[in-house]
Write a structure and sequence with these properties.
heterodimer, A: 250 residues, alpha/beta, Alpha-Beta Plaits, 6-stranded mixed beta sheet, 4 helices, globular, B: 269 residues, 8-stranded mixed beta sheet, 43% helix
């Protein structure tokens, strides 16, 4: 008997290394009520984003008692909201034993200190989602949209940039992991860097947006009226503040 | 093959049924065999505006459910003999409009008619989706106010994603903007959006501008499609719109305050 696949027969499967981006739920403490309320609140803000995603429970910032950590409850609550808990990251030996009992995969604590993108008030749903892995293999093709994005429509570029060669109407929503370019008026909501990329920017020909967000830091229409309104601008994050800059300085 | 035109808006009360009545009458008056279908199951109105409410025996839902044939349900207009009306059911639920049932009827009508005008109910629910699903062209009825424009934008998005043409990856539904209840004086005073504002936001070709007019209300109440009021500004505006729908070039009228003043002086009772 050998381990190698016998000559001629095609092996049933092949194992390959894969790098995927996951959402981590950074648990501070666990109580059923507040946990579910917070989760429901987050989902309500971006329902499409959370549907059927895998989730890692990160224990690195866990401050509660180990005895309060009920993974069966966490899995159950998440499942009710169509989120699949895949495993835990970090935690001490006792916590990891509990996770194992709940059939969760165990991931090592992240070596690199993640830049915290959480801030209490101005956090949009995507704010505290830092990707667990950031291995970047070459450029990702930008998603290009030629048609007007109408009220009620949502366009999402989950990996790279989003380029729209038409207006984004009031009541529409455009989201991208990277930058967002709108070659037309931006009248709806634009959320760039939804996975926490703080260097993401938003570019548009005419700023008339309901909301602009970069890596979870956002400004609503009211706050951007004074600067660059109805003109060509780009918006970037500087010291945790959204800064609007004119594109036509000539 | 008939051309299928949906008259839709998202928002209620903007003039969909008035427009459906006038456009179908206008098409028929030019000799095209036309049928207008009321998709507003439960809130039947088209028969009133077409003045055939006393002649309704069978309706759209009866035909879908096989309780009557199309010929039994179709009502021939008394004024324009190439025009037929398929009334909605007043007693059923909108869910009675099944996709297969609607398709069967549209296909059957397609064989003998030149134009099928679908009068959509308000909203973006089942009835409205059924009305627009089979459309080749769409007349998006919009009032010059922000909420109506927003709802029209929503409907345009739905036309682009949920119509049969979108699902089959065919050429998109041809979109037309019809601005109704337009009052140039109020636009000048800044109380209404201008034609330019609405065109700029929705970014679809303008089919026509129907001025706000007492005639529209009067003729609705009497069961006369406005387009038959040949002397009125609103009637002429609908006639222009029908001509443009058929590909004719016509200059837009009734968009400035002076002209409106002139007409309202002439025709206000």
């Amino acid at each position: 008997m050998t381990d190698t696949a016998t000559a001629g027969a095609r092996p049933c499967f092949q194992l390959k290394g894969a790098t995927v981006s996951l959402t981590a739920l950074e648990l501070h403490y666990f109580e059923i009520g507040p946990f579910e309320d917070t989760l429901r609140d987050k989902i309500r803000q971006a329902p499409g984003f959370f549907r059927d995603i895998p989730l890692i429970v990160s224990l690195e910032k866990y401050e509660g008692l180990t005895s309060e950590l009920d993974f069966f409850q966490i899995i159950g609550i998440c499942r009710r909201h169509n989120i699949h808990v895949a495993g835990v990251r970090g935690g001490n030996d006792d916590q990891r034993r509990l996770a194992r009992n709940a059939s969760l995969a165990l991931l090592p604590a992240s070596a690199r200190r993640e830049e915290s993108v959480t801030e209490p008030a101005a956090a949009s749903p995507e704010a505290d989602m830092a990707p667990t892995t950031e291995a970047f293999q070459g450029p990702v093709a930008a998603k290009i949209i030629n048609q007007t994005v109408r009220s009620g429509q949502q366009v999402y570029a989950p990996e790279g940039d989003l380029i729209i060669l038409a207006p984004v109407q009031a009541g529409a929503e455009v989201l991208a992991a990277g930058n967002i370019h709108v070659y037309g008026p931006l009248r709806g909501r634009a959320l760039a860097g939804v996975h926490g990329l703080e260097s993401a920017r938003v570019f548009c020909q005419s700023l008339e947006a309901e909301l602009v967000s970069i890596a979870g830091h956002y400004k609503i229409s009211e706050d951007i009226q004074d600067h660059g309104w109805k003109s060509a601008v780009h918006i970037q994050l500087k010291d945790d503040q959204l800064v609007v800059m004119s594109l036509d300085k000539a | 093959m008939a051309k299928i035109i949906v008259v839709t808006s998202g928002k209620g009360g903007v003039g969909k049924t008035t427009t459906s009545a006038s456009i179908s009458t206008g098409l028929a008056r030019r000799g095209h065999k036309t049928v207008v279908i009321d998709f507003d199951v439960g809130l039947r109105n088209l028969d009133l505006i077409m003045n055939c409410e006393r002649r309704v025996v069978y309706d759209f839902v009866n035909v879908i459910q096989g309780e009557a044939t199309l010929n039994q349900a179709l009502i021939r207009d008394k004024r324009v003999n190439t025009l037929y009306i398929l009334p909605a059911s007043q007693t059923r639920e909108k869910e009675a409009l099944t996709r297969e049932g609607v398709e069967k009827i549209i296909n059957e009508l397609s064989e003998t008619f030149d134009y099928i005008v679908c009068d959509s109910p308000a909203g973006i629910e089942h009835g409205a989706l059924m009305a627009l699903y089979y459309a080749d062209e769409a007349v998006v009825v919009t009032n010059p106010e922000v909420s109506s424009v927003r709802d029209s934008d929503r409907i345009l998005g739905i036309l682009q994603s949920k119509s049969r043409r979108a699902e089959l990856g065919q050429d998109p539904v041809k979109e037309h903007l019809l601005l109704t209840r337009y009052n140039p004086q109020r636009v000048e005073r800044g109380e209404m959006l201008s034609v330019m504002d609405v065109e700029e936001i929705l970014a679809i070709p303008l089919l026509g501008v129907i001025p706000e007019s007492q005639i529209v209300l009067n003729s609705s109440n009497q069961g006369i499609p406005v387009i038959l009021e040949d002397d009125s500004d609103a009637g002429q505006a609908y006639e222009d719109a029908v001509a443009r729908l058929l590909g004719e070039e016509r200059e837009h009228r009734f968009m400035t305050a002076q002209k409106k003043g002139f007409f309202s002086r002439m025709f206000k009772g």
